[in-house]
Design brief:
The protein is of the alpha/beta class. The protein has one domain: 4-Layer Sandwich (Metallo-beta-lactamase, Chain A), CATH 3.60.15. Helices cover 33% and strands 22% of the residues. The chain is built from eleven helices and 17 strands. The strands form three sheets. The chain has an eight-stranded mixed β-sheet with strand order 8-7-5-3-2-1-16-17, with no helix packed on it. Strands 9-10-11-12-13-14-15 form a seven-stranded mixed β-sheet. The radius of gyration is 22 Å and the shape is globular. The protein binds zinc ion. Zinc ion (ZN) binds next to α3.
Length: 327
């Protein structure tokens, strides 16, 4: 009798151990980085040097093209896209309605066949934004306002939307920025628009596992209200890019952010104001970065104002009012 009791205890203990192991393995699998395959060819991402603003061109080895933001009105984005062989744009993303992100959208829709447009859905009353919406309407381009939790597979790339949530902010368009993580094989890229601290806090609270990325496009052009230790810890990038113009009137990148990045020297920093267009390629396992121009290691942590002062670049006075609005 005692023997039988002992053996049933052993069986129960073994069962519990097996269940615990299965639960552990299942959880571990969910948290693990995505598997390297199945991808073929190389993904190319270009952080275009369009001056003060954002424009990121993603070209998949299977031929699809994604463009995230257009740069400000008057930027040479259309010419650049032609130079990089763009004929059609499968997905155009307007992270948020500020002009330095959507100023060239109408021209881009007129110059290339655009199949789909994503918008943050933040209501905005500028002519630039109205022009973008009108053009997409005139052309009958598919129009979506994706929210946190939605995802899309394009070629071998997976796009996950991390911001905004269903509750759009009622004050600041920056916090409505579409934040999208792109996974290609085991490499991950985080595109952040101008998302500021408030939206980052929400993402860190609800999407922490999905924030991890190898390459982070610094939000809001290296501004101090969009880059801090909590964000860097959550994303844990190996590479950071900053898109801004030399001599910009917004003081980007900010001294606090430059100090923070200098403390994390292992994270490789690239910036368009010094290095021109930044190109990152991924084979699904590793990311290689090249730049149009070379910046010296000593200069890379100069603040926006220090760089402008050293090179005698004058801030653009036309942008002063925009600077005050936090664009
Ligand atoms: Zn911006």
């Amino acid at each position: 009798m005692a023997k039988r009791l002992n053996s049933s205890r052993v069986i129960i203990a073994l069962l519990i151990a097996v269940i615990a192991a299965v639960v552990y393995l299942y959880r571990h699998k969910l948290e693990r980085a995505p598997e390297p395959g199945p991808v073929s060819g190389k993904l190319t991402i270009r952080f275009l040097d369009i001056g003060q603003g954002d424009a990121e061109l993603v070209q998949l080895p299977s031929g699809e093209t994604i463009l995230i933001d257009s740069g400000d009105r008057g930027s040479a984005t259309v010419e650049m896209l032609k130079k990089y062989g763009v004929r059609e744009i499968d997905l155009l993303i307007a992270t948020h309605p500020h002009a330095d992100h959507i100023g060239e959208m109408r021209d881009i829709m007129r110059a290339f066949k655009v199949k789909e447009l994503w918008d943050s859905g933040f209501p905005h009353t500028t002519k630039t934004y109205a022009d973008m919406l009108q053009e997409r309407k005139d052309q009958g381009i598919k129009f979506l306002k994706p929210k946190r939790g939605e995802s899309r597979k394009i070629g071998d790339a997976l796009l996950e939307v991390l911001n905004p949530s269903n509750d759009l902010p009622d004050d600041n368009p920056n916090n409505a920025s579409l934040v999208v993580r792109l996974t290609f094989g085991s490499t991950r890229f985080l595109f952040t628009g101008d998302a500021e601290e408030k939206s980052w806090q929400q993402m860190i609270a609800s999407e922490k596992d999905k924030l991890r990325a190898d390459l982070l496009k610094s939000a809001h052009h290296g501004s101090s209200n969009a880059n801090n230790e909590d964000i860097l810890d959550a994303v844990s990038p190996k590479i950071i890019t900053i898109s801004c113009a030399e001599g910009n009137d917004y003081h980007h990148p900010h001294p606090k952010v430059m100090r923070l990045l200098r403390e994390r020297e292992a994270v490789k920093l690239y910036r368009t104001d010094m290095e021109g267009t930044i190109t990152a390629t991924s084979d699904g396992n590793t990311i290689e970065v090249t730049t149009e121009k070379q910046a010296s290691k000593n200069d890379i942590y100069l603040t926006g104002d220090e760089l402008a002062e050293r090179n005698g670049a004058k801030p653009d006075s036309k942008k002063k009012s925009a600077a005050r609005k936090g664009m």
